[in-house]
# Entry
Amino acid sequence: MRNLLIFISKYNAFFLFIIFEVSALVIYIKYNSFQKATFINSTNQVTGGLYARADQLKSYISLREVNDSLARENARLRNQLKTSFYIDSAAHHKVVDTIYKQQYEYIDAAVINNSTNHRNNYLTINKGSRAGIVKGMGVICAQGVVGKVVFVGEHLSVVQSLLHKETIISAALAGTKDLGSFIWGDNLDPHVGLLYNVSNNATPKLGELVVTSDLSLFPAGIPIGKISNLHSKSAKGAFLNMDVNIAVDFSKLQYVYVVNNKLAQEQRGLEAQQKKDE
Amino acid sequence: MSRTIIINLLRFIVLVFIQVFLLKNITLYNLSTPYLYILFILLLPFEIPNLLLFVLAFILGLAIDAFYDTPGLHTTACVLLAFVRILFISITVQKEGFDNEPEPTLSIMGFRWFFTYALVLTLFHHFFLFNMEVFRFSEIQYTLGRVVLSSLFTVFLILVSGLLFYKSKERK
# Structure
């Protein structure tokens, strides 16, 4: 017994190392496999508050760019207004149309923390459960797809960016509607992703737009990027592979929209029931 | 004694702030990201008890993780770094010399020793950190490239900060 104690105290550095390393690994693995709600992230008050401060300063510096992009978006939306169309038939009458019901709702939010240079990137946005955000909602911006909400606090949420090892999005070619899967490439370039599993019959063209498909959690037709190379070097799967230039510039992201799909709950309920029945 | 505590506390806060608000936004060619915050563990005094060293490394890792949204990742790397530091110092420094060499800084230990010390510890830390983050053997080549380039960047920053706070009168 005494010898054992002497042995332990002689090599105490090693035993302390084992204890601390194991506890750190437990934190790491637990968080990674279940995306569990831990208090160690940027939605808690101290870190979230500091990030919000730093973001105020940053957003002031880039006001001009944000103004420009908002003005462009305004102009685009104004073009779609009824008042900007010329009516060339003499008589017109109003019809209350009950065919259209709103399926998607958009919640605007500002990005207060962002990274693009890691293997797994996350954003923090300044809206949380108070604004109606729920885990699993899609996030887009004026240019295209941004990511998916993975953790919701009361006032802030964490978004798993498109630039993440585990983000896979169901995508389609804009012209022919051929389906495929979109992931971020493994060379950590924040501007290039990979579209794979596209059927061999498809005829993609250079520069063709890649958009979200009907199967994704986003509204169909949100742009992801443009095809930049038809034969990707980092091929995956047995079907067609192509490099995609990502539409969103993640390093300049300032404002995003969280997509609330009103039919998502119904869909999830049905699919869960189907699993139970099988 | 209390002076050492205050200096290290200040160093902790300043390094975490520099890391989180400045260096987090810096990447060279998507390959090289500096992690200067490990300088805090490198510069702790020689005579620090092992238990305290591990506790401080753990807290530093958690603080960085909280800002990086990666619970546990930097903590595991920092604890490993503390262990390597203990081994490295026990191999290269004689116990008798502790009275007049309180801290392993560049001005006290000389360029050669400090450079090897910083390089070895940084390589260990970065190798472990990047591989834990990627967690895939299929990308090992690319990860190793990132480890080496990032280590060079970090060691460069450590040496620059060592020269910035160089006190020539302490040298014998």
Remarks:
- Residues 2-170 of chain B form one domain.
